[in-house]
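Board work, copied verbatim: 3-dehydroquinate synthase
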Amino acid sequence: MQSVIPVPLPQNAYAIAIAPGSLDHIGSWLTGETLTLKPQSKILVVSNPMIFRAYGQRVIDSLTQAGFQVTSCILPAGECYKTPATVQKIYDAALENRLERSSTMVALGGGVIGDMTGFAASTWLRGINVVQVPTTLLAMVDAAIGGKTGVNHPQGKNLIGAFHQPRLVLIDPQVLKTLPMREFRAGIAEVIKYGIIWDAELFEKMEQAKRLDQLRYVDDELLQEILTRSCQAKAHVVNKDEKESGLREILNYGHTIGHAVESLTGYRVINHGEGVAIGMVAAGQIAVEMGLWDQESCDRQLSLIEKAGLPTRLPDGMDIEAILTTLQSDKKVQSGKVRFVLPTAIGTAITTDQVTSDMIRSVLKQM
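↓ predict structure ↓
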């Protein structure tokens, strides 16, 4: 099963290709009809040690056979390394290998590698090509698509960044077979998000699955449905609102409180998807308290999050007042007011700045 989903942006159109086995044919994808890069141009493959060990040589061999001049840059793994200091290592590799404006960076890894590589590509020589080759479910359905790149500041997540659209997103579902269970669940959190904010049918299909906490319980047909529908949802929203000035804000559902929890635990206690799951539980209950959403739908969301083996409560020892303080440095704050994405039905969400600190505090105490 292979599908190509267009992202027809006026200035930076590209495609998302979902193709089993495509990792061994990346050279053909970069020189084919979907994306025509100049043969003999330079490519810097950016990855982390574990992913590079598993897939790096296969990618390099395919790119070399297609005529590209290929080098690599290996970065430490983990959200805690998503910093300007780590991006400096990409710049050093770009300088050492004399990357030019016709050169390309290939991000081979999860969301952390994709974000840092995209940011480096957006700023090297004022912007060069980047191709996203996501290796985690979370990156496949979310982080690799849409052109949001960036790194973390000690005071908050992704506060330093730029919009820089990839030239291609190449998804090989077969790499998920080596993905740790916890990382798979983290990706399912983003898929549940799409079900809540955009695609009620996707939500219902996941409700019908017996288990969602491990890849081995998700058959190929459902996995293809998850990948395709999630990518279509993200592509549609990004096409309507590339720079997050309106509609695209709904993609932040669960992220407002989720990012705060991630940041306050030093990116070492919970991962991004787990933070989003906790944030969705909180946002769902806030929506109920505000009369925007019904309790039955909120309970269905909670059940699906639990089915995916994701956390639904705050980590032990979390300081609720610290969460409220951290929310004030969120990127989505406008005129001092935190903007929340809240569901109004399964498949529909709105953005509002009418959520009070007392309401957030009350819901978080319940968690």
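The first strand starts at residue 3 and ends at 7.
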